[in-house]
Each structure stands twice: as structure tokens, then as C-alpha cells.
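Exercise 7.
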Amino acid sequence: MTIRLLETPEEMAAVEELQRQVWPGDETGVVPAHLLITVAHNGGLVLGAFEGETMLGFVFGFPGIESLPDGPHPKHCSHQMGVLPSHRDSGLGFALKRAQWQMVRHQGINHITWTYDPLLSRNAQLNIAKLGAVCNTYLRSQYGDMRDGLNAGLPSDRFQVDWWIRTRRVERRLSKRSRGTLGLSQFQQAESQLLYSPVPRADGFLQPPESFSPPTNRLALVEIPPDFMALKAANLALGRDWRFLSREVFETCFAAGYLVTDFVFDRQSGRSLYVLADGESTLGKVL
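Solution. The predicted structure, written as C-alpha cells, is:
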């Protein structure tokens, strides 16, 4: 497998087709080749992962400006990453993001942002646990009503994550001596607070509770379904219940100063949980 910069019309046409395979069912959501070429030729990045001449995945983003307390600063907005369904969980997404990290650092930029659905445990495992991104921004219905096969039927709520690419935290996650992922027991020993307990259903899925406890400990745990896409496909109403509960939980936590700093997929129990830390005591250590 190789990863390389994409620049030609033919390469961008291949990215168009890959988008149709990753997000089927909505042609209006496909980023067109002419826009991808414009991005690539004006400070943005379009990267493709190949096996021979077959494109297996891509990532693209562009420069942006953000307003910080000391004035405007440049950032890189990573807009889209897609991997063929046949190559998910192969490490390809991590490799693409690592290549993006290397290229953006060479541009002299310190900060990359992107969005993802906070109920997707596979994405959380990559973005938070493996890459070292953090989050304290919850965006309601960020993209309006989406019609593709992966997003149709639910509000397009998203996390916007912050990837501070020159920090020791991120460098350790991306080094050849990565710390690996932590287990649930390690956070339980740290006296973390579980904000609610989902209820197992007869169909094998989890039912969200009707209420939750606001965070008071230094660490808080927020559990999500281990396979939200399967849950939503089987029971859209149940998926909506999870969307609205998680929206309330994360907005409450972020308003109280908490920050998503880790994610745990516990293989023994099959549970998926976010780890949130009190931002006042944690942000300096993270950055």
C-alpha cells in the first residue's frame, strides 16, 4: 500500500467514485473533481491510498482561519476521509491521517479540525484514542438533513475535534512506540464517574436511559452503542433516542468545562465509552 498526493483530473475522478462507494445514495453529497483540484492547487491536500493502481481510501482538507483570543490564526480543515468498506479496520484510516499530519506540519500549521458523528465508535476509536484529538464542541444538525445511506433519517449532529499536531500527546500517539489503547479497568481504578447505564434489550441492542447524572468527578464516562450503524438500521426510532440523549449529555458536559480526552472499546465486555476530563485541570496537560 502506498499513500501519495493527488493532483490530476483522473485522480480526482477516482476520488469522486470512491465517495459514491463509501456514502451511497446521495449524488449531491459527492465533492466534485473540479473542487478537489482547486483545493489541491491552492494550499489544500488531497491524499490517496493505493494498492497497485486501485484507490482504497482518501483524505482531503484545506487551509482555514480561526479566531483565537490573541487574534486570527491559520488552521487546516480536514473535510472528508473515506475508506472502502472492504478495508475498514485495516489501519488505512490511521495511515491516511498520519500522512496528513506530516504534510500539514510541513506547511507550518499547528491545528487541524474535522467533524464526525459522536455515536460512531469506530470513528471515535480512531480520532480520539489513536490519533489523540480532543473535543469540547458539539454541533447540532451541522449539515442539515443528509440523504446518503449512512446518515439519512437522523439529525446530523457532530463533534468538532481539535488535533493539536505539534503536541507531545499527538506525537506519542503517532510514533512507532505508541502508548496503545487503555482499557476500561484503568479508568475505573481512577475513580471515574459513569454518567448513566444503558439497558440491554431483547434484540441485543442497548436502550438509552431516560436521565443521566451530571458530571462531578475529575473523570466522567459516557457509554455509546458499540455498533450504532447496525442499531440504527434495525430500529431508527431507537437511533433517534440515542441521538437526543447523547446530545443532552455532551452539551451538558461541555458547558460544565469537560473535555473528551480518550475513548475505550473494551473487548472483553464489548462496551464503548468516551472518557471526559475536567477541562480546567486537563487542558494544559493535553496541549
